[in-house]
Specification:
Nucleotidyltransferase, domain 5, 45% helix, single chain, Hypothetical protein af1432, disordered N terminus
């Protein structure tokens, strides 16, 4: 499933869904802490194009454990928020508006009164989900966004009132679990007077006992753990901020080492709520309940002895969209979701497919011949292939500065299976397929870590030469023969049968070979079919096309 979310600075989409191909659906998730809506077009094969989103934090579950009822003020705030969301969904032409309520409404004595009030004010019928229903929807969303087809996975959703767990093996759902261990509920139980070491130990002990009873370490040790919900997106934001990944535009697929989760928990537990509100990457509105949420996450990770946690930006709402559209849930093969997402993003940008695929093929040929010598990893090959396919998406905005437009488009794209750090590198590699080489004075490049700058330089060097070998955009080069000699890298292009000549492509590759020569430490020689040799040492000053 793919998702193209509206950037906050872009105008709202108001187009009607295409008849017969898409259904416009709004999903409203009424939780213990927040109420969230997503409006999206869903195709029969599960592709999602997000039209708009809205969020409010009425905290319906506040004081629920003590009183047993939803507070009057919280009800007012929630009903007002739901009414706004319903109005927006109808104005955007939603064919269906699905509203569901979770832990707080499920546990409240006055739930029926609240549901009747929502019906009276908005016309919506609210469905109260069981905890197992929440876990199933989270699993369905994860199935569409991650490769779950091989191995064991634990999908964890921490809401304000409850913890949901979906346990799956090879993409098949094995067990659904719901526990009353939400971030808001536990904060009220243990941290009314602030976070103290003793209170945190007691909270973790309760969670440890509860999780021990539902997760067998024998069966689930080493499973990948995927976390959805506000606790995890905030964890991802804080982790990226600590890694100085300020360029990352979304946290989806962020991988956080378990030790980092513990470090963040220790750091936040030692702060006041006011100090936590200043933490980079943390939503200030969640500063008072984030410690409890992260503590729950830490105990689940410890129970399955997971090495890291993967953040999902998607959850119950996306699961509702898929169920409402009656999209069949299937496990993706490894890498399939990523490949499909990158391709569909390229198609949305109306990319020139023959040229992009030719450049991708040639870039990967160069990588296979030179990647090991340059110190590249296996993951770099996939990254280069994706950057090559997307390198010209900036044409979607204009030809002028299209390499810079490509950088911004890729950086803000929703690419499934691509971690934020990878996406930043990918955007930079595409940015430098033409024009000036990477320089520290370029903000997009200079802010990266030394390791990331090295990856960008190596992959951009390969992409520049590959792009040069299709300078005419006609796919005239059939193959590249690469020889790694002691004093030079020699590349000989082979023309496609019937191609008149490839001199333009040789010229293009030669003019863009300097960066590859620099990262390799030896000259790059482009050899024409008639034996002429064009060395990177002889590239004209200022050549950059």
């Amino acid at each position: 499933m793919t998702a193209a979310r509206r950037s906050p600075d872009r105008p709202r989409q108001t187009r009607e869904p295409r008849a017969g191909t898409e259904t416009r659906i709004a999903a409203i998730d009424i939780g213990s802490n927040s109420v969230r809506q997503i409006v999206a077009d869903v195709t029969p094969d599960g592709a999602i194009s997000v039209v708009d989103e809205m969020k409010a934090a009425p905290r319906l579950g506040a004081d629920l454990e003590d009183t047993g009822v939803l507070g009057a003020n919280a009800i007012e705030r929630a009903v007002e928020a739901i009414a706004r969301m319903a109005t927006l969904a109808r104005q955007l032409g939603a064919n269906r508006i699905e509203a569901v309520a979770t832990s707080a409404v499920r546990d409240a004595e006055n739930a029926k009164r609240f549901i009747a009030r929502v019906r009276q004010e908005t016309g919506l019928r609210v469905k109260v989900l069981r905890g197992e229903d929440e876990a199933r929807l989270s699993f369905r969303s994860a199935l569409a966004h991650f490769d779950l087809a091989a191995g064991r996975s634990v999908i964890m959703d921490i809401g304000g009132g409850s913890l949901e767990l979906a346990l799956s093996a090879d993409g098949v759902l094995d067990e659904l679990v719901s526990l009353p261990l939400g971030a808001l509920r536990l904060t009220e139980r243990y941290f009314r007077d602030g976070v103290t070491p003793r209170a945190l130990r007691q909270l973790r002990k309760e969670v440890r006992r509860a999780v021990r009873d539902v997760i067998s370490t024998r069966d689930w040790r080493g499973a990948q753990v995927i976390g959805s919900g506000g606790t995890f997106t905030n964890l991802g934001g804080m982790h990226l901020a600590r890694q100085k990944m300020l360029a990352a535009r979304n946290v989806h697929a962020t991988k956080i080492p378990r030790t980092e989760v513990e470090h963040l928990l220790d750091a936040m537990a030692s702060m006041s709520t006011e100090e936590r509100r200043e933490m980079p990457g943390l939503n200030p509105g969640r500063a008072d309940i984030i410690v409890a949420g992260v503590a729950v996450a830490a105990e689940v990770l410890a129970r399955v002895d997971a090495r890291d946690l993967v953040v999902s930006r998607y959850g119950i709402r996306e699961g509702i969209l898929l169920e409402t559209a009656r999209v069949r849930a299937t496990a993706a093969d490894p890498g399939e979701a990523r490949e499909r997402s990158v391709r569909e993003f390229a198609e949305r940008c109306h990319y020139e497919a023959p040229h992009a695929q030719q450049v991708q093929r040639l870039a990967l040929r160069l990588f296979d011949a030179l990647g090991e010598r340059l110190g590249c990893s296996d993951e770099d090959r996939t990254l280069l292939g994706d950057a090559a396919l997307l390198h010209d998406v900036g044409y979607h905005i204009s030809y002028d500065r299209h390499h810079k437009h490509a950088y911004h488009l890729i950086l803000h794209a929703e690419l499934l299976g691509v971690a934020p750090a990878e996406q930043v590198v990918m955007a930079n590699v595409a940015r430098y397929h033409r024009g000036a080489e990477p320089k520290r004075k370029h903000r997009n490049f200079g802010e990266l870590s030394p390791a990331m700058r090295g990856r960008v330089r190596k992959l951009a060097a390969l992409l520049r030469v590959a792009d040069g070998f299709d300078r005419g955009h006609i796919g005239a080069v059939a193959e590249l023969k690469v020889r790694r000699m002691k004093r030079a890298i020699r590349i000989t292009p082979v023309a496609q049968p019937g191609a008149d000549n490839i001199r333009l492509d040789i010229w293009g590759a030669h003019r863009k070979s300097e960066l590859l020569a620099r990262v390799a430490g030896i000259p790059v020689e482009i050899v024409s079919p008639d034996g002429d040799v064009f060395s990177s040492d002889a590239v004209e000053a200022g050549a950059n096309e």
